Amino acid sequence: MKALTWQGKRSVSVEEVPDPIIQEPTDAIVQVTSSAVCGSDLHLYEVLGPYMHKGDVLGHEPIGIVAEVGSAVTGLHKGDRVVIPFNIACGHCYMCLRGLQSQCETTQVKSKGTGAAIFGYSELYGSVPGGQAQYLRVPHADYGPVKVGHELPDERYLFLSDILPTAWQGVQYADVPDGGTMAVFGLGPVGQFASRIGRHLGYRVIGIDPVAERRAMADRHGVETMEYAKDIGEQLRELTDGRGPDSVVDAVGMEAHGAPLGALAQSVVGFLPDKLAQKAIETAGVDRLAALHAAVDSVRRGGTVSVSGVYGGEVSPMPLLSMFDKQIQLRMGQCNVKRWVDELMPLVENDADPLGVMDLVTDTVGLDQAPAMYQKFQKKEDGCIKVVLKP
Fold first, then answer.
1. Is the entire prediction scored with pTM above 0.85?
2. How far is 121 from 377, CA to CA, in rounded Å?
3. How far is CA 295 from CA 179, 230, 244, 390, in A?
4. Domain assignments of the chain as residue spans, ordered by start
5. Is 132 exposed, middle or buried (0-12, 13-18, 19+ CB in 10 A)?
6. Helix (H) and strand (E) counts for the chain?
7. How far apart are CA 370 and CA 391, in angstroms?
8. Is 2-162+336-390 a domain of CATH 3.40.50.300?
9. Which end of the chain is more exposed for a tag (fewer CB within 10 A), N or C?
10. What topology is assigned to 166-332 in CATH?
11. What are the φ/ψ torsions at residue 357 (nearest 5 degrees)?
């Protein structure tokens, strides 16, 4: 089959790789019909390359048709249409039963001290082949896949794989009071959905991003938007009676703009041999923290900062004096996709499309064009906000 493979820093290519096969009775094989490119895929393209191996198959946002099921899989049949959550969870361990599927104890990558395995996301999360491919092997298919109908287009359901529940969890963790104000740093795909979810729930939402096309998209959904600036905290306080927003969602993560020291650290790591680079990431501060520090500065005293953006440095510096003094609550973590699907399904199937799932994709291309789209997406060229591949 054809699959998008990692070849090196800023280098991916479509290659012929072996078709996946059933390896465990609880596996399924899914023929992928659409697979989105996630902002966190760009971390593998750039910063987290030391954890990748040449030929690794990328991608963790797929939807498709079940082609084969293992002997122990019940409730799933050949021909079913399914969305595949990005984290691989068993559904019956201590963590899964508490709605913490991203911490599944069955699939935790204990050798790396990390949580549940993730499709297409480096040895940090199990080196499981991903879904930017024609076919995908799905472990724990007796629990993970989300069955959907055949009538609506892929894009109605596709984002249930990751970014829509990630945004929903980010807003839930933000603990916005009724009628409160929520600021969203970063209007990429997760930030777009977080902003729309905030509006759907009745909050005042202010979105911050340096890219005009992203601000324009958020404007269409009733979000107040601002360009990022060094004094963004002061600007937000001016808009909120001098206090700052009740809650802030950081939907940016480790590659924020305006963070020269983090950018330098990431560049240096990129030139080290893999083992040394891994050590540097695990023992040093390599994140660009401009957005997170701005979130801490901006949020009102006693407010909440919710982190949905991915960070990778183990000892990245945080302004603990300010955090303690302002009595800030901080919540974060990989999304527990299955925890939120039941709440989101009626919204994505609603004819009114209240979260605008059909107004996110800017580029739809065949798998062969994926390498060019990675470059375009990373550089934010031509208004590229969300890419969907059609294997």
1. yes
2. 18
3. 20, 12, 10, 36
4. 2-162+336-390, 166-332
5. buried
6. 12, 15
7. 10
8. no
9. N
10. Rossmann fold (3.40.50)
11. -65, -20
